[in-house]
Design brief:
The protein is 18% helix and 39% strand. The protein starts with a helix and ends with a strand. The relative contact order is 0.17.
């Protein structure tokens, strides 16, 4: 009888510890989930594309990550848009995968704003009521809220 209570107590304690670790991991490295809140279109050197993917991290409601799959964009493969802070940025890290799902680290989630003087080229960023558009000399990206 005493061994059974000890076994049950140990199982409950292990379950609580594993649940706490999972919640901590979700908070620190929220996974990215595909989002259909906005339509994404981009142009590179005058050619239009619509194959960009839009992601939103779990638990961060106003932030979106844009994945540009075209090999012709070079350095700019990911962008971050945060509507709460009105920031469009280039993340200074790669999106990592955790258990096969892309995720970001909460402490590295924004990156370098496109309008920052340290950015290599000049970007124009324009937020409006339906979304955001940002562009430089060769590339333009627009997000438009879906109805």
């Amino acid at each position: 009888m005493k061994n059974k209570k000890l076994l049950i107590s140990g199982a409950v304690l292990l379950t609580v510890i594993l649940a706490a670790c999972a919640l901590l991991l979700l908070w620190y490295a929220p996974p990215l989930r595909k989002s259909s809140d906005y339509s994404v279109a981009y142009t590179v050197s005058g050619r239009s594309f619509s194959n960009a993917q839009l992601f939103r991290p779990v638990g961060i409601q106003s932030r979106y990550y844009i994945s540009i799959p075209s090999p012709s964009v070079g350095y700019y493969r990911w962008f971050v848009v945060d509507f709460a802070y009105k920031i469009a940025a280039h993340p200074m890290f790669g999106v990592t995968c955790l258990f096969g799902s892309p995720c970001v680290h909460r402490d590295q989630s924004i990156g370098l704003p496109l309008t920052d003087a340290k950015t290599e080229d000049h970007w124009k960023v324009s937020f409006n009521t339906s979304g955001v558009e940002f562009s430089n000399g060769t590339m333009s990206v627009s997000l438009v809220r879906n109805p």
